[in-house]
Amino acid sequence: MNKEDITIITADDHPMLLKGLNDELEKNGYSIIGQANNGIQALELILKLHPTLALLDIDMPMLNGFEVIKLAREKGSKTKFIILSFHKESYYLVQAKTFQINGYLLKEDSFFEIEHCINEVVSGNVYFSKSIDSQPIIEATEELKRLSLLTLSEIKILKLIAQEISNQEIANTLSLSIRTIEKHRSNIIEKLGLKKGNNALTNWSLVNRSTIFSQ
């Protein structure tokens, strides 16, 4: 696909960063058809203008980048998504892989890296910044694999745990016994490779809520 055929929407709540990105993209021949400084605005532009690509920050008001992507896809959007963020921790990479995001770049990356990512994504490939160490990506992949080991019943219980609902309330909601819920919790802990402890699963579920609720 030629540059002039690639339409792009950008979204970031930092005006200077957004302007700098847009200026660089336009200077290099790309067509910016919309820009947003919050998640709601970004989602509206994506659904209205159907861009080839959307370059999104994660930390935006109203909706974060991952939420924008999830909602856009639920509405049938065919736009390809590239995250452009300061975050390179495995927690964020797990979410990126969970949502099957097309590209993930760091704001410290050069424009050469951004353009390389755009080319890869437009060609149908997935691209993660070369600035990200391979270990966090491996850890993110492994964590997602462990989550995929859970049964539908275990996922349902994990979602309730992530809402800080007690065992008794979960048992009542699902019409199961406390003993059955405790057995499920034990199985989930084992499958996720967590250390056994009173709050180990609850703490893990709170940290990974976005990933859990994407299942």
Question: What's the layout of helices and strands?
Answer:
Blueprint: E1 7-11, H1 15-27, E2 31-36, H2 39-49, E3 53-56, H3 65-74, E4 80-85, H4 90-98, E5 103-106, H5 111-122, E6 127-128, H6 134-147, H7 152-162, H8 167-174, H9 178-192, H10 200-207, H11 209-213
Parallel strand pairs: 1-2, 1-3, 3-4, 4-5, 5-6
Helix pairs in contact: 2-3, 4-6, 7-9, 7-10, 8-9
Characterization of this structure:
With 215 residues, this protein is of the alpha/beta class. It folds into two domains: 3-131, Rossmann fold (3-Layer(aba) Sandwich), CATH 3.40.50; 149-213, Arc Repressor Mutant, subunit A (Orthogonal Bundle), CATH 1.10.10. Helices cover 54% and strands 13% of the residues. It has eleven helices and six strands. It has a six-stranded parallel beta sheet, with helices on both faces. The longest helix has 15 residues, at 178-192. One of its GO terms (molecular function) is DNA binding. Residues 143-209 form the HTH luxR-type domain. This is DNA-binding response regulator.
